[in-house]
Design a protein that fits this description.
Blueprint lengths: L2 H14 L14 H10 L9 H20 L18
C-alpha cells in the first residue's frame, strides 16, 4: 500500500476512533466501503439520525481524502488505486 493510503487510513482512525485493520486486505478499497465501515463501527452523536450520521461521516472522509490524497472528485464506488490512481 502507498504511503498516501497509509496516511489516509491513519487519519480516518484518528478522526473516528475506529480501527481499519489491515487495509491491504482489500475490503476497504472504495470511499463508500470506508464510510460504511466507520458508520457500522461507531455511533451517531448529537442526536443525529442514521442518515444524517452517514452524511456527516461521508463529508469528513471526503475532507480527509482531499487533505491526505489530494482527491476531491470521486464517487463512493471509486476504487482508490484503480480509479483514483492513488499510489
Amino acid at each position: 500500500m502507498s504511503w498516501a493510503l497509509d496516511e489516509f487510513f491513519a487519519a480516518v482512525e484518528d478522526e473516528f476512533g475506529v480501527p481499519v485493520g489491515d487495509a491491504n486486505e482489500g475490503y476497504l478499497e472504495t470511499p463508500g466501503a470506508v464510510i460504511d465501515h466507520v458508520v457500522e463501527n461507531s455511533s451517531p452523536t448529537d442526536g443525529m439520525t442514521d442518515d444524517e450520521y452517514r452524511d456527516h461521516v461521508a463529508g469528513v472522509v471526503g475532507e480527509i481524502m482531499a487533505r491526505t490524497l489530494g482527491v476531491t472528485r470521486y464517487s463512493e464506488r471509486s476504487r482508490f488505486v484503480e480509479d483514483l490512481h492513488v499510489r
